[in-house]
Every structure is written in C-alpha cells, then in structure tokens.
Amino acid sequence: MLKAGHVYKRFTLSGGREVTLRVLRWEDLDGILLFINSLVKEKLGDSNSGLYSGFDKKVTREEEAEWLAQTLVKIEGGEAINAIAEIRGRVIANGEVTRGKYRDTHRHGHMGLTMISEYRGQGIGHRIIETLIRESRRAGLRTLEVEFLAQNETARRSYEKAGFKQAGTIPHKVFRGGRYFDGLIMSKEL
Questions:
Q1: Does 84 fall in a domain?
Q2: Which end of the chain has fewer surrounding CB within 10 Å, N or C?
C-alpha cells in the first residue's frame, strides 16, 4: 500500500518537459480542481469530445475537497490505486484503479484515466496505465477492466499496447449533443 504523494517515476518528454508520476496528496486540492474544471470546459465546448461520462458541470472547491478526502481514504485503505501526472507542478492527468467492493470481486479492479487534451498522444497515458497495472498486481488484483467511448482511438491503442483485450460494447450508452455514443469495455488478466 502506497502513501499519499509517493513518487512512482519521473521521465522526460521529447520536448524536454519532465513528467512526475505520483500518488495524489491533500496539497493537490487546488491543482486537481483546475484539472477537473479544464476537462469540464473541454467537454462542454466539444460535443464530439472523447471524454467519457461525467464532467458535466464545473466543480466547486468544496466538492473537490470532499472527493479528494474520500479518494485519499480509499488509497490509504487499499481500496484504490492512484497515479497522477504533473508537469512543473501542474496536474495534467489522473488515473485510478478502484478495487471491487464485494468479497467476490475484491481481486478485480476498474481503471479510469483522464488527461488534459494538449498532453494526449505523447505516451503519458501509457506510462500511467503501466504504473497502475504494476501496482494492481502488487495489491493482489487478478483482473482489470476499463470502459471508455468506443470512438476514442487514442485510449484504445494505449490499452491494447498494455495488453487489454476488447470485452464488449454497450451500444448507445452515452447521449451527448443530440447523438448516441457506444461504450467500449476492455479487460486484462494480471
């Protein structure tokens, strides 16, 4: 079980920017608030956004503080594995695996990952996925699943590269901008 703020690794992008992958900590409140609200702005401004469900309205600092407190409790209790990416102190991505909450599903995890658009396609998401897979194994998980919009080819390629296989499609799962979008489920045995 990793503690808040634990640094997994640092690496440099081709443009020279250093990325730090680490676990969330309480001091990230304002940075994670800016991060989530930038995703809300992206989604509201583009009905074809590859962002999945959620991100429908701006989040208040109080709401984000509540989410962060609950998430840190889950991390400390071994119920969640987290990895954020930051560049120069700015949170640019957040990935998480949430352990199944029942005894029967306690060795299964649900993965989620979001990233600010300007950093997508640079390999950061793949490194977060690799980190979450490694930490999920260490935590005793046996399987992982992830769900995202079927049209999100960047996500599909990243998960396939990490060994995920398509497990199913949910037709018309998301209704946005007057259109339906399919949900894609991928899974991986650890």
A1: yes
A2: N
Strand partners, 187: 145, 165
CATH code of the domain covering residue 74: 3.40.630.30
Does some domain include residue 38?
Answer: yes
CA distance 79 to 20: 23
C-alpha gyration radius of the chain: 16
Q: What are phi and psi of 33, to 5 degrees?
A: -65, -45
DSSP class per residue in 107-139: TEEEEEEEE-GGGTTSSHHHHHHHHHHHHHHHT
CB neighbour burial string for 109-130, b if at least 16 within 10 angstroms, e if fewer: bebebbbbeebbebebbbbbbb
Is residue 59 a part of any domain in this protein? yes
In total, how many domains does the chain have?
A: 1
AA letter at 81: I
pLDDT digits (tens, 9 = 90+) for 66-85: 999 999 999 999 999 999 99
Domain span at residue 132 reads: 7-142
- For the record, the structure tokens of 59 come out as 């989040």
C-alpha to C-alpha distance for 170 and 173, rounded to whole angstroms = 6
Kindly state whether residue 112 falls inside one of the protein's structural domains. yes
Per-residue model confidence as pLDDT tens digits over 134-144 = 999 999 999 99
Q: What are the tokens at 161?
A: 């590269």
Centre a 10 Å sphere on the Cβ of residue 137 and count the other Cβ atoms it contains: 12
For residue 22, give the H/E element and its range.
Answer: strand 18-22
